[in-house]
Design brief:
Elements: H1 9-18, H2 29-39, E1 41-44, E2 50-54, E3 57-61, H3 72-84, E4 97-103, E5 108-116, E6 119-124, E7 133-134, H4 145-155, E8 162-166, H5 172-185, H6 187-190, E9 193-198, H7 206-221
Parallel strand pairs: 3-7, 4-8, 8-9
Antiparallel strand pairs: 1-2, 2-3, 4-5, 5-6
Helix pairs in contact: 1-2
């Protein structure tokens, strides 16, 4: 597996295109796939989606349907992915880690919580170290929430118990729909859910997530 500094020729050119300011420049998916195969592992994730894995980092790119060039939203996601995946994910040294899914307004973010003695002591956010990234192109808003749900389910395939937060009271319905969908479509994943709650905050920082996760575990463990 090469580093970004080791890229040459066509792969170097594709990399430079990805990091240009988003505009009408056409970056072909075939060229992107060739670049990523040079840098890591590329798999078909069903429905013409691509699953990219590099140094433990994972990114799912949505199908382009009839198009053969990457839209602006996907280029931005690729840019962030290539930067952070230069370094391996945080090593948890065998300690138990839980997955924290935060459902927002039309998007979802996945965090990993480092657990000591049954309580989360650290939460590693999407940036700069991320376990999994769910990318939905800003130029292709998806009307069917099942498409986003399916991408979240693929991301949750990583081992660990699952805690789900709704980012605000406005996401309660979306959170409940996702949990019901998961129980129906992926009962094995649904069995790993240890709880869910709505945060009802406008801005959710890593510190707030940690505090709320601790609060949740304290409540569950002292019942």
């Amino acid at each position: 597996m090469k580093t970004l500094a080791q890229l040459t020729g066509a792969h170097r050119h594709t990399y430079q295109q990805i990091f240009q300011q988003p505009n009408s420049t056409d970056v072909r998916r075939t060229a992107v796939r060739s670049l990523l195969e040079e840098l890591g592992q590329v798999e078909d994730a069903g429905d013409d989606n691509l699953k990219l894995t590099r140094n433990g980092h994972v990114l799912v790119l949505l199908s382009l349907e009839e198009k053969d060039t990457e839209p602006t939203g996907e280029l931005i996601a690729l840019r962030h992915f290539l930067k952070r995946s230069e370094n391996p994910l945080h090593d948890f040294n065998g300690r138990e880690a839980h997955l924290l899914l935060v459902i927002g307004h039309g998007d979802a973010r996945l965090f990993r919580a480092d657990i000591y003695g049954g309580f989360p002591e650290q939460i590693f956010p999407l940036e700069p170290q991320v376990d999994l990234t769910i990318s939905v192109s800003a130029s292709a808003k998806v009307a069917d929430p099942g498409i986003l749900f399916d991408l979240i389910a693929k991301a949750l395939g990583t081992p660990g118990k699952i805690l789900i937060f709704g980012e605000s009271s406005a996401t309660q319905v979306a959170m409940d729909r996702f949990i019901a969908w998961l129980k129906r479509e992926h009962p094995d994943l649904a069995e790993r859910i240890i709880g869910s709650m709505v945060l009802d905050h406008d801005q959710v920082s890593s510190g707030l997530l940690l505090a709320k996760a601790r609060e949740f575990f304290t409540h569950v463990c002292t019942k």
